[in-house]
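Below is how a single chain appears once it has passed through the pipeline. First comes the sequence as given, then the structure the pipeline wrote out for it. We keep one example in the README because the format questions we get most often are answered faster by looking than by reading.
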Amino acid sequence: MSHTVITTTTTTRTHGDRLLDLGYTRTIPGLLKIGQMVALLVAFLCVRCARGWPSWAAFQYFEVVSLWFLIALLVFFLMHVFRLQEKMPCINWPLTEFFHYSVGSVLVLIAAIVAAVKSAGVSALVVASVFGFIATFLMAVSLWSTYSVTCGVHQTGAAV
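Resulting structure:
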């Protein structure tokens, strides 16, 4: 009785082989980060290009908050795209993003409210406050999603 054995080998590439993870840009967290960055960039540019600020201190605060969180979001986005969080496992990245979104949501909301109140009908400042509210909403959605990842119920393999 003769047996024939067929052996097949498959080579798969893991995610760690590539330098970039461009697939992250098509995920929901990636799209949320891109939306937040665009909204904050438009808000910052509207305030920066507006002439005749009715309240200098309020719009300086708006500029600082929008630019600061734009840079922080860009850093988090690049960390995911270049997979740098895998190279630094000593930092709890979901918890770090949770704190970023919780502080960012509150500060951008305050800045958008102040900008809406102090805009005095200047159209560029009104648009900046609207994009501030859009960024706040997107940050709140990201906050909720990172909360469910960070603090949600975790399943374990242990039998009860």
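The chain has five helices and no strands.

See the next section for the split statistics.
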